[in-house]
């Protein structure tokens, strides 16, 4: 059973941690570039444009320069938002970070429904083998002992809000 003093200490610790959230948000940033490498932007977690770089060849984009800059800046903003949530999660924990996401109405980009989960290791290895013209290696059979060793050494603190 938790005593009143422990509850007060927990509340003070949370209050102190919450006061650091603003610092963490200010330190977070994200950088993105377009596929062609003609536009690169760095944005902080509040949306302030910190750096914009245009390649000399961006002149050839004509009227597409503006929309391309906006698109890249938005991608950088998503990176900055995720960076901020990652920093907050390390300080406050996943539950508090998720609660902040819910209160602000701005979920972490890694939780977005349209987020691309990427590819599995197996898929990567298969595609690599195809590209190199080699036979893909058969999947390794996991033994029960290997799985037990994995879970014995698993550290739940390694889980983060960015998956």
Strand order of the largest sheet: 1-2-3
Work out the helicity level: 40-55%
- Residue stretches low in confidence (pLDDT < 50, at least 5 long) are none
* Largest sheet features: 3 strands, antiparallel
- End-to-end Cα distance, whole Å, is 33 Å
Nearest-integer average pLDDT: 83
**Rg (CA only):** 22 Å
Strand content: 5-15%
Going by helix content, strand content and strand pairing, the class is mainly alpha
Q: From N to C, what is the helix and strand string?
A: HHEEEHHHH
Shape: flat
Find the count of extended strands (DSSP E, 2+ residues). 3
What is the tally of helical segments? 6
Describe the structure.
The protein is mainly alpha-helical and 163 residues long. The protein is 52% helix and 10% strand. It contains 6 helices and 3 strands, in the order ααβββαααα. Strands 1-2-3 form a 3-stranded antiparallel β-sheet. A hairpin with a 5-residue loop joins strand 1 (29-33) and strand 2. Helix 2 packs antiparallel against helix 3 and helix 3 (65-92) crosses helix 4 (94-104). The radius of gyration is 22 Å and the shape is flat. The two termini are 33 Å apart.
């Amino acid at each position: 059973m938790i005593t009143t003093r422990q509850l007060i200490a927990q509340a003070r610790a949370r209050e102190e941690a919450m006061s650091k959230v603003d610092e963490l948000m200010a330190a977070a940033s994200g950088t993105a570039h377009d596929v062609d490498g003609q536009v690169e932007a760095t944005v902080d977690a509040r949306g302030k444009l910190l750096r914009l770089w245009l390649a000399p060849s961006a002149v050839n984009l004509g009227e597409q320069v503006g929309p391309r800059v906006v698109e890249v800046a938005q991608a950088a903003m998503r990176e900055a938002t995720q960076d901020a949530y990652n920093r907050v999660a390390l300080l406050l924990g996943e539950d508090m970070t998720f609660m902040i996401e819910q209160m602000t109405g701005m979920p972490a980009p890694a939780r977005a429904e349209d987020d691309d989960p990427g590819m599995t290791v197996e898929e990567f290895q298969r595609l690599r083998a195809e590209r190199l013209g080699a036979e893909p290696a058969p999947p390794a059979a996991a033994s029960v002992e290997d799985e037990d060793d994995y879970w014995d050494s698993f550290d739940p603190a390694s889980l983060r809000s960015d998956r």
